[in-house]
Amino acid sequence: MEEAVFFEATQAEPLDGHGHSRAERRDLQAQRILEAAKTCFVRSGFQGTSMHQICAEAGMSPGALYRYFPSKESLIEAICEANRKEDAEKFAAMENSPCVVDGIVNCAMDHLRFTHDNGNAPIFAEIATESLRNDAIRAIGDRCMGEVQQSFRRYLQGALDRGEIDPVVELDALLPMILAIGQGLAISDLPSLGVPFDRIETMLRTTTAAMLRPV
Known about the structure:
about 0% strand, elongated
């Protein structure tokens, strides 16, 4: 059965890289589907996109695609999971930073650069919009943002316990503000509007320092 699934899934269009293992080729195929889904979601919106349109964009049969992703919700979940894994590396670097302001600003700027370089702002905006009317998408977003919030809470609580910061408000109010700023920067994609990265970093650093008030 596994061989049959793999055979059908790779008949749509040969993938580059004859030296890849079977697992790597399957990963490449899944990535191609996700890129096709992102293109369709941005072009037509989540509600206006059908699985058949995604199949056409990916150049594969419905039977092949459904073996990878059974629904549009599963595609959104995979897109969010890929972003979560990317962010996990940034959080690890943040937690190793000796300066809490540097840690947060560098993490946010890395995320912004990754979002801009990969053209992810439109799909993030579409996911955020769809989460307002789709319980399944909202649950996916809440789960991913919950992990992000835990990372920031752990980092800020540690700095607070060590007496390194004196925030203007309590942590429960501060965290949603920091996350809202980060999400807004990613979705608005200011670099695409001509705002240089160094100017964004200057403004973000000033705002972060004002909220945290490093001791």
